Amino acid sequence: MKKKIGFLSFGHWSHSPHSQTRTAGDVLLQSIDLAMAAEDLGVDGAYFRVHHFARQLGSPFPLLAAVGARTSRIEIGTGVIDMRYENPMYMAEDSGAADLISGGRLQLGISRGSPEQVIDGFRYFGYGPPEGQTMADIARQNTEVYLQVIDGARFAEPNPRPMFANPHPGPLPIEPQSPGLRERIWWGSGSNATGEWAAKLGMNLMSSTLKEDESGKPFHIQQAEQIEAYRAAWTAAGHEREPRISVSRSIFPLVTAQDRAYFGADRSSSDSLGNIDGYRAVFGRSYAAEPDVLIKELADDEAIAAADTLLLTIPNQLGVDYNARVLESILTHVAPGLGWR
Q1: Which domain does 174 fall in, by range?
Q2: pTM of the full structure
Q3: Is 85 in contact with 122 (CB distance < 8 Å)?
């Protein structure tokens, strides 16, 4: 099955002498450079993780707009934006503008968020749950509002004496509107239930390298079952278009001495378990081996087989040149052997 292949950068920076990204400026500028290099290689997507109060990428829309202005073909996205921190109206304006700059290439991954660097960080942004609700509830409510306004909902009562003439009578929508953006929103789902919820709302599915351990089965099988449940819910909801589904993996072909030095010892063939926000989570394994071995191992990954898009998590602190070469190795030495190219 041919697949779209993209990279997912966590956007780390540190003062370590071994890091190629020492500052936030380094990360932002190198993110643009890597997206341009990836486009030249034939990679399909450039995606960026979003975290607050951390030395990682935290404000995605300036970066997405800049990447959109410097590229012409590659999809540009997030994995994921924490909707507990977002004003859905302002986000609709930002995403509409960034999507127009890119020519309609935005693929926004959003979710209820993951554990953060600080306790209840959303409160510092001015948000908190009303009585009887949780911030997971608020994230989903923000998402529903956001989806409505980017879909053209007209809800704001116009001033009878506006500064500028209104283009049409009646309530006004958020501007700018970017046609088609509503169909390019993805929900980062960590469970079967939230995947089904995303399907009912007509969002694409973004499944990461971990999920709630709901059966004790291997990670890739649980993830494949999540995808199956999502597709069933999508069909039941009666949506007309085909949904997009992505999974994320850490994959490193060992082609050069440098590859072996960095990842030659990372050959664990098993998943791991942990606790995330009070629930038991299963974390998928990393893949690091010679290309012929990778082809055999990846062929057995049921979730990759079920998804149309594969996002490759990259070690961004190793710099643009090294990460571009990793992407090239996957496209050249691995993807053809699996029928992805």
Answers
A1: 4-338
A2: 0.95
A3: yes
| Cα 282 from Cα 182, distance rounded (Å) | 31
Q: What are the pLDDT digits (tens) for 28-52?
A: 999 999 999 999 999 999 999 999 9
Number of structural domains, the chain?
1
Give per-residue pLDDT as tens, 260-309: 999 998 766 788 888 877 778 888 899 999 999 999 999 999 999 999 99
The residue type of 125 is F
Closest CA to 285 of 273, 295, 299, 275: 273
Instruction: Give the β-pairing of 272-276 and 309-314.
Output: unpaired
Q: Give tens-digit pLDDT for 20-31.
A: 999 999 999 999
Residues 6+ apart with CB under 8 A from 314: 7, 8, 9, 34, 323, 326, 327
CATH number at residue 287: 3.20.20.30
Cα four-point dihedral sign 220, 225, 226, 228: positive
Helix (H) or strand (E) holding 140: helix 135-150
pLDDT > 90: what percent of the chain?
87
